[in-house]
Amino acid sequence: MVKPAKTKLCRYPFTVVPGYGVASGRADDTPYPEGAIALQKPFFSALGLDLSRCFNGTINAAFDCAQVSLKRWDQQFSRVNWFAALPAEDFRFVSCALLRQDAFSEERYPAYIYQVVASSKIGHVQPGNVLELLAPEITGLAYGDVMVLEIKENTLMFA
Per residue in 79-137, pLDDT tens? Predict the structure, then answer.
C-alpha cells in the first residue's frame, strides 16, 4: 500500500497592522457601512466557499520583507459582481491557520488568505508586505501583536 505524501507546512511570523477599515465597515468614509466582507460572503457561499465562521473584517498581516505574494491558491473566483456600483473583481483564497502563542500555550485558528487580484482591484491597495486574512473573531487581538501564519510550503514567495 502506498501512503500519500504528507504536506509540509511552513510557519511565518507576522505583525498585525491597521488596514483601511473598509472590509469591516469601521472606516468613517466607507461606502459599505456593514463592511465589504459581510456583503461579499453570500457571493462566495453561492460559489462554494463558506466563510460564515469568519469575522466580517480582515486581519492585516505585515511580514518582514518588501514583498509577499501568492505562488498558488486553493480557490479563485473571477468577475464577482458583489456591489452594483463597482466593476466585478477577481478573488483568490488560500486555506491556512493562524497561531497565537505565548509562553504557556498556542491557540490555533482556521483561516484564509483573502486576496483581491490586483488587476481587478479598484482601490485600497495594501503595502507589498501585507496579506489580508479572514479568520474567526480573535478576542483581544490588537495592532502590533505578533502571530504566526501556518501554510502549505511553496504557497508564498517573499522578496
Answer: 999 888 888 899 999 999 999 988 788 899 999 999 988 666 666 667 789 999 999 99
Q: Which pTM was predicted?
A: 0.89
**Measured between alpha carbons, how far is 10 from 156 in angstroms, rounded to an integer?**
10
Grid cell 468613517 — which residue? Answer: 28
Torsion region of 26: left, alpha or beta (phi above 0 gives left; psi -120 to 50 gives alpha): alpha
CA angle in degrees (0–180, nearest 5) for 20-21-26: 155
The domain 9-17+53-158 belongs to what CATH superfamily?
Riboflavin kinase-like (2.40.30.30)
